[in-house]
Amino acid sequence: EKFHNYIDQYDRLRSKTNFVTITIKNFYHLAPHDVLLSTLLDFFMKFYHLPVVENIHITKIVRLTSLFLHNNRFYYDGKIYRFIKGGPSNSGLIETLSNIYVNRMEKFLIDQSSMKQNEFYGRYHNQIFFTWNQSLDELQQILKSMTSEYHHLNFDIHFGKKLNYLDLYLENHDGILYSRVHHQENQQPYTLPYISSTGDSITKHSHWLRSSLVRAIRYCTSVEDFNHERIYLEMTYLA
């Protein structure tokens, strides 16, 4: 909705507008534990000025977090290992710490450019998307500064007039947005998402189909693309 407002209400999509995506591949293993802990402390003190959270002092929170990080082990191939960066991907705490750290990186990226005023910017998990209306030389310089400042992060960066972001394909047709659903290559074409054996499976299938159709309506800018996606969903539903 906000992206459509950027295009329709604010009329900021130009023929020169490029799309940029940044994927952080090592999202759960971003930085050494000491860096994550200092970032957490800065998050409480400098950005939100919170010395106490729910009657717990932030020094105690940082100490407990340190205890978790430095004593996290995992078993693999008959041996026990210790994380030296980040932690397990199924840990809510690790995801929170990673988001706090990426928030600092985002601030650096935005402060380096004119995105505060003129561009659309968004992030889902480890994937960043924004528009760019300035020169590509300036963009490359900003990205170079970002990758240099955060050299320990594993970035996958793409920019241009057409690209994929999550399950969406975007293309700038001389200032007019074209979009459709994008199916990732690593996903099997005719499979349903996991359906639990408990509960009403028919209802869950119906909810999935309805959500997929709503997504197709929102994503597809042409009737032809919507019909292709509808047929794809019908084939998936029957598989």
TrEMBL record:
Residues 1-213 form the Reverse transcriptase domain. It comes from Rotaria socialis. This is Reverse transcriptase domain-containing protein.
